[in-house]
């Protein structure tokens, strides 16, 4: 799993097909093709300890890889369109996305790549279980029960497996072992913004860090299973089956502490705490792939809930909602709302920078795509207005997300001056990349300053931070017009008198002229 914020965050997962223990004792289970006696873990289930989450109107769900009919351990990724290939029901447990938008998917012993045109190919693994081939082409190497998948900022692929250690596939397709991590069995991998690698040692109840120089240190967990240490140093805290890892935008590390049914946060000072809204309870059931976690660009936390067949969203203030899955096991719903779809053993989640979410539908051998909207609101309103004079401005809503707006999306404007109103404005189902410009107009009827706020409401929007725009409008009284001074005019009698005077003046002038002659 890569924790780079661009283009996305990625998480690795795993699943089982045999363990049925509901307690914390050991049980024999088939784990990625191996029989192992390990501790059975509880799920991060849908029911929150504080409150049962609501259901959000998520966006349309589609399948981008797999058919929903899982294959056995096929040993390869097939070819052609990814939607025509039967992926494994056990091995499909993690995904990652590179900067070009190509999707990478784990299978039991191989890594598949789905390019942006939907074509699938094998990029690592020869299909046989093993741990050989370092120094050569990744497609000729053998892997055994892949557990984790991540991309660093340079586009190198990191792979964890049950064989122990982490292996790197560079951008040229060559595979090497990460020597500092030889012998470590890790179940998830994340990179911080500085390029340091973090990995969950699930069986050992620890989180380790390998810095860019190759030095490995423990960053969380004492090695003993338990639940303690909140408010203190993470290295002195007890974890129980730590699994999924993710970084938020501030660089804090989050850990799915699966056995304790809680998400833990480790801040930049190494202090550990439990995340508000990240405490869950539930029955593990028949699924073991319940702890992939991810952040979107608005720092909402998403948790894959394998046994609940859902994806849960936790906002920064701790509000829980179901955004994918109806909670029943099955494979259905493509083309409809994600909250009404059936999934089976959700193993992993990953976000792109545009807000599209990839969901590993593990036991169905599929990867599903859920696209969310992102409505950005801008306001262009003149800052001054006058009572009784025409006034108008515009509000523009643009969908910057990866999916259309919900059919119930609306725009509301508050604080408009008296006499000014919002005209017809329909943003329902606003398509990706499209904009709608709405007009506010009228003639103000009262003086004063108004704080105007325009807010788009869309339950499918993954980033509410840009859903509002504000402006201040000051209305002044109408100016007093000065009274005009009337210009004197000649009356009708005055005109007649003037005519007589002019005529008399002319007669007298002619008479005087005659006398001189």
TrEMBL record:
**Region Disordered: start-end pairs:** 459-481
Domain Teneurin NHL, by residue range, is: 136-275
Q: List the InterPro entries hit by this protein, alphabetically.
A: 6-blade_b-propeller_TolB-like (IPR011042), Ig-like_fold (IPR013783), IPTL_CTERM (IPR026442), TEN_NHL (IPR056822)
Q: Which residues form the IPTL-CTERM protein sorting domain?
A: 485-511
What PANTHER family does its record include?
A: NHL REPEAT-CONTAINING PROTEIN 2 (PTHR46388)
UniProt name for this protein: IPTL-CTERM protein sorting domain-containing protein
Q: Which organism is it from?
A: Comamonas serinivorans
């Amino acid at each position: 799993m890569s924790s780079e914020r661009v283009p996305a965050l990625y998480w690795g997962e795993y699943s089982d097909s045999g363990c049925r223990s509901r307690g914390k004792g050991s049980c024999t289970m088939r784990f990625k093709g191996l029989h192992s006696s390990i501790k059975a873990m509880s799920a991060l289930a849908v029911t929150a300890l504080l409150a049962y989450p609501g259901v959000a109107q998520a966006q349309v769900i589609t399948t981008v890889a797999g058919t929903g009919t899982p294959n056995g351990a096929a040993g390869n990724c097939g070819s052609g369109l990814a939607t025509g290939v039967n992926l494994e029901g056990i091995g499909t447990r993690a995904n990652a996305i590179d900067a070009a938008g190509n999707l990478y998917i784990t299978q039991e012993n191989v890594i598949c790549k789905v390019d942006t045109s939907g074509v699938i190919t094998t990029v690592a693994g020869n299909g046989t279980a093993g741990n050989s081939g370092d120094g050569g082409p990744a497609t000729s190497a053998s892997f055994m029960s892949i557990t984790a998948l991540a991309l660093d900022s340079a586009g190198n692929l990191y792979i964890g497996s049950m064989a122990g250690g982490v292996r790197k596939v560079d951008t040229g397709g060559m595979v090497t072992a990460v020597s500092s991590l030889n012998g470590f069995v890790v179940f998830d991998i994340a990179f911080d913004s500085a390029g340091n690698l973090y990995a969950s040692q699930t069986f050992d109840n620890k989180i380790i860090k390998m810095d860019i120089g190759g030095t490995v240190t423990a960053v969380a967990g004492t090695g003993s299973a338990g639940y303690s240490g909140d408010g203190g140093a993470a290295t002195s805290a007890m974890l129980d089956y730590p699994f999924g890892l993710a970084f938020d935008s501030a660089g804090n590390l989050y850990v799915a502490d699966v056995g304790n049914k809680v998400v833990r946060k480790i801040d930049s000072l190494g202090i550990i705490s439990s995340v508000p809204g990240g405490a869950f309870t539930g029955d593990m059931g028949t699924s073991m792939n319940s702890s992939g976690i991810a952040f979107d660009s608005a720092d909402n936390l998403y948790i894959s809930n394998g046994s609940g067949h859902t994806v849960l969203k936790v906002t920064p203030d701790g509000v829980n909602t179901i955004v994918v899955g109806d909670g029943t096991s099955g494979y259905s719903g493509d083309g409809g709302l994600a909250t009404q779809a059936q999934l089976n053993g959700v193993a992993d989640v990953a976000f792109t920078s545009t807000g599209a979410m990839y969901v590993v539908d593990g036991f169905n051998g599929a990867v599903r795509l859920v696209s969310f909207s992102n409505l950005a609101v801008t306001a262009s309103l003149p800052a001054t207005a006058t009572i009784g004079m025409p006034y108008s401005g515009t509000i523009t809503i643009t969908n910057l997300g990866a999916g259309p707006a919900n059919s119930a999306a609306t725009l509301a404007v508050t604080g408009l001056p008296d006499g000014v109103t919002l005209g017809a404005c329909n943003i329902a189902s606003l398509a990706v990349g499209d904009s709608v410009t709405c007009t506010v107009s009228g003639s103000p009827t009262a003086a004063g300053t108004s704080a105007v706020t325009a807010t788009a409401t869309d339950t499918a929007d993954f980033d509410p931070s840009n859903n509002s725009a504000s402006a201040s409008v000051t209305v002044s009284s109408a100016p007093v017009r000065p009274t005009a001074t009337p210009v004197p005019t000649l009356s009708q009698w005055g005109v007649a008198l003037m005519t007589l005077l002019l005529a008399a003046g002319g007669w007298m002038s002619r008479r005087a002229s005659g006398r001189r002659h």
